[in-house]
Structures are given as structure tokens and as C-alpha cells.
Write a structure and sequence with these properties.
CATH architecture of one domain: 3-Layer(aba) Sandwich
Helix content: 10-25%
Number of helices: 3
Shape: globular
Bound molecules: inosinic acid
Order of helices and strands: EEHEHEEEHEEEE
Mean pLDDT: 93
Oligomer: single chain
CATH class of one domain: Alpha Beta
Largest sheet: 6 strands, mixed
Length: 180
């Protein structure tokens, strides 16, 4: 499928599922090496990270735990998105190695908010693993951003967990919006 229609928009293929899986395998190898002898907690940021989290976890050979946090952002004022937690962080993060798992880092506001909350619990370490990263869109630098699947242009994308208006999360490939 090279194009899909979702609601009022047309999208075209950007990253095929085969390539996503290959990239995830490589990130998994890296994580297994970096966290050898430790037991990190992977914390997925819902909703968008659910497929990435599932496929990434299948690559892990080291002992690890899994949790999720859910946030919603209200971007009335685009430059200062207000973030609200609707499913809170686990409360046992002190002295633990945390890996935050995101579908996409766009402005960075969501991550900044979550990272501040995580740090309040005095973890041993915190790193971020994101499938997609839009370097041109970042507004708050995230120094913890260590594992990146793909850098993509500043365009709206759907599929593999990412939605447009709630739709498209079930697509196995990733698509970008075709400019109107
Ligand atoms: P940030 O706070 O601007 O970094 O936004 C991160 C969140 O916005 C992601 O977790 C996604 O839920 C959503 N988002 C950002 N860009 C896109 C996109 O291109 N497609 C779908 N969702 C997106």
C-alpha cells in the first residue's frame, strides 16, 4: 500500500514495516549491551508507543520491567504545550535505570514534562528511546535522548502506533501526510 486515506487527509508511505523491524533489532542489540548486568524499567508513553514497546521488548535478553505512563497535551499555545498526566508513573523508580520509550519526539515538551517527574524519584539513570525524531521541530533539547530509530522531516506521520485524529495506529508501516 503506497498511499492511504485517513479522515480528510491523504498519506504516503514513508517507512516500511520491514525497515522498522530491522532498526528495532539493532536498537535491541545496543540496549542489551548497554544494560548488561542491570535490570532497567522500560516506561512507554501511551498511546503511541504501544507497538514500538511490544516489538522492542521482544528483542531484550536482559532482565527488565515494563510500565506505561499516559499524558495528554493541550497545545492551544503551540510553543508552551500544557501537559497533563492521565496515567501516572510507577512510584518505585528510586535507584532504578529508566528507559523512557516514545513513538515520536516532536517539540520535546511531552518528554520534558515526564523527565521532570521521573527525576523527582531519584532514579539511578534515565535515557530516552524513541522510534521517530523530528530534529527540525524540537523546541526543548532533550539530553537524555540516546536511542533514535529514524530521524524524519518535520511532517505529520501516522501508522505503527501513531494516529491522525485517533485513527491509523493499526497501520504496520509509517506514512507521511501528502501536502494539499
Ligand atoms: P511533543 O511533546 O511535541 O514532542 O509531542 C510528542 C507527542 O505528540 C507524541 O508522543 C505524539 O503523540 C504526538 N505527535 C507529534 N508529532 C506527531 C506526528 O507527526 N504524528 C502523530 N503524532 C504526533
Amino acid at each position: 500500500m503506497n498511499t492511504v486515506d485517513i479522515a480528510d487527509k491523504k498519506f504516503e508511505l514513508l517507512i516500511e514495516n520491514d525497515n522498522i523491524n530491522k532498526r528495532i533489532r539493532l536498537i535491541g542489540i545496543q540496549l542489551n549491551v548497554d544494560y548488561e548486568g542491570r535490570c532497567p524499567i522500560f516506561i512507554g508513553v501511551l498511546n503511541g508507543s504501544f507497538l514500538f514497546m511490544a516489538d522492542l521488548l521482544k528483542e531484550m535478553d536482559i532482565p527488565c520491567e515494563v510500565a506505561f505512563v499516559r499524558v495528554s497535551s493541550y497545545k492551544g499555545t503551540a510553543s508552551s504545550g500544557t501537559i497533563k498526566e492521565t496515567l501516572g508513573l510507577p512510584e518505585n523508580l528510586a535507584n532504578r535505570d529508566i528507559i523512557l520509550v516514545e513513538d515520536i519526539v516532536d517539540t520535546g515538551f511531552t518528554l520534558k514534562h515526564i523527565l521532570e517527574k521521573v527525576q523527582l524519584q531519584n532514579p539511578a539513570s534515565v535515557r530516552v528511546c524513541t522510534l521517530l525524531y523530528k530534529p527540525e521541530a524540537i523546541q526543548v533539547p532533550v539530553k537524555e535522548l540516546e536511542y533514535i530509530g529514524f530521524e524524519i522531516p518535520n511532517e505529520f506521520v501516522v501508522g505503527y502506533g501513531l494516529d491522525y485524529d485517533g485513527l491509523g495506529r493499526n497501520l504496520t508501516d509509517i506514512y507521511r501526510a501528502v501536502p494539499e
